[in-house]
Write a structure and sequence with these properties.
Number of helices: 24
Mean pLDDT: 90
Number of strands: 4
Low-confidence stretches: 79-84
Radius of gyration: 25 Å
Helix content: 40-55%
Distance between the termini: 43 Å
Strand order of the largest sheet: 1-2
């Protein structure tokens, strides 16, 4: 991923941007990065280049841009004597939990012990938790202590979907409106919270969005400043918010090609939204790069995407999405059958753990997915296929959880 990041940063292909990523500024906000520490980092980077990049001109070109990147993250804060990384994850998690529960006394005590929690990126996370939960008094307390009314924070993946993981940043006002928290909304507006095109797109506020775009059509292609590495535009916000009408309105005001619509198309496909996928495809979204997903199950969307080149590749990523018991996945033979219909093959290999090089049948066997095993065998899966260590699917069965019906799996594969 770091290789892809620097390749794109230096003007190469936009493969890094296809993956979700929080902005560099937000990732480093609140950390005491001094010029001296940035210089140390650059020293390590220069020595790494000396060892790996042969041409001196190339090293000079890369280093000039990387230096500007490092210096842009300098905060000017002095490093504490006993710690460097500022707020610990546990402190922030506790503060957000207290805000969510409306425990103002507990939150006040935590803020007194760790005043750095009121730095913009941390305060934005706490404020969002309070706004989503409708904790008006907690929001009031945070505002009184200097938390910004407009500082955005990323929405959780269970709201945005995997296609937009950690890249859809919304203001507290947007969070409050999304959950219809009118008391919180009133407090934020009184504190000077402002309207913005990203909020209007995400919430599908067509009257306000129309006025904004009529005044400044360029807003349709504005890059969200909260995500300083990727070009996250109102198009992404509209798709993440499942606002098809807002998406069409925004696209009507786009005057030149957007850098990338792949993420937006993935988001629309994950929602099974033909109404959003069609205008994105019409605007040039590249369906060939959409990747694995449950779009293969949609009776109208799947043929449309396939007609534009969408296909499950042979990298084996589909195996992790459908044939393992990870992340609460269940036996889903219809999904596996659809994946095989749109390009997946039973002899594809998944490089799980770096060196396993195992087939879908290996994983389905260990998970005890009887119906998936049947589908794989019907499509020609080899029950004697071996992984990188020479183990067959039945060998993997020995590592299965106690709840797996070993006898039934064994009989099915042997049959």
């Amino acid at each position: 991923m770091q290789k892809l990041f620097f390749a794109e940063w230096l003007g190469g292909p936009r493969r890094y941007s296809e993956h979700a990523y929080a902005g560099l500024g937000h990732s480093h906000d609140g950390l005491p990065i001094t010029s001296a520490l940035a210089g140390r980092w650059l020293g390590h980077f220069r020595r790494a280049m000396d060892a790996t990049v042969a041409a001196e001109d190339d090293r000079a070109t890369i280093f000039a841009q990387v230096r500007s990147l490092a210096m842009a993250l300098v905060s000017g804060q002095a490093a504490p004597a006993k710690r460097w990384c500022g707020i610990g994850a546990r402190s922030l998690t506790r503060a957000r939990d207290l805000a969510r529960r409306g425990d103002d006394a507990g939150l006040g005590a935590v803020l007194a012990q760790a005043p750095d929690l009121l730095l913009p990126s941390y305060a934005a996370a706490i404020m969002q938790a309070a706004a989503l939960a409708g904790r008006a008094e907690t929001v009031r307390m945070l505002l009184e202590r200097g938390a910004g009314a407009d500082h955005p924070f990323s929405l959780p993946v269970n709201v945005t979907g995997l296609a937009f993981e950690r890249v859809i940043f919304v203001t507290p006002l947007c969070a409050a409106r999304m959950k219809h928290r009118s008391a919180v909304e009133s407090l934020l507006l009184a504190a000077g919270a402002s309207e913005d095109v990203f909020t209007s797109a995400f919430l599908g506020d067509l009257p306000l969005l129309s006025r904004m775009l009529a005044t400044d059509p360029g807003l349709a292609q504005a890059a969200d400043p909260a995500v300083d590495v990727l070009d996250i535009t109102p198009v992404d916000h509209a798709v993440a918010g499942a606002q098809a009408a807002a998406l069409r309105l925004i696209l009507d005001h786009v005057t030149h090609p957007l850098p990338s619509l792949v993420r937006a198309l993935r988001g629309a496909a994950a929602q099974g939204s033909l109404a959003m996928a069609e205008p994105l495809l019409a605007r040039g979204a590249d369906a060939t790069r959409i990747g694995t997903g449950r779009w293969v199950l949609h009776p109208e969307l799947a043929p449309l995407l396939a007609s534009r080149g969408a296909r499950i590749d042979s990298s084996g990523r589909w195996i992790g999405a459908s044939c393992t018991g990870n992340q609460g996945r269940k036996d889903d033979p219809d999904y596996v059958r659809a994946l095989l219909r749109y390009g997946a093959r039973v002899d594809d290999r998944r490089m799980g753990g770096g060196t396993l090089n195992a087939t879908a049948l290996h994983y389905a066997t260990r998970a005890g997915f009887l119906r998936t095993i049947e589908v794989l065998l019907e499509h020609g899966a080899d029950p004697d296929a071996r992984d990188a260590q020479g183990r067959t699917p039945l060998d993997w069965l020995e590592q299965a959880a106690p709840s797996v019906p070993r006898a039934a799996v064994r009989n099915l594969i042997r049959r």
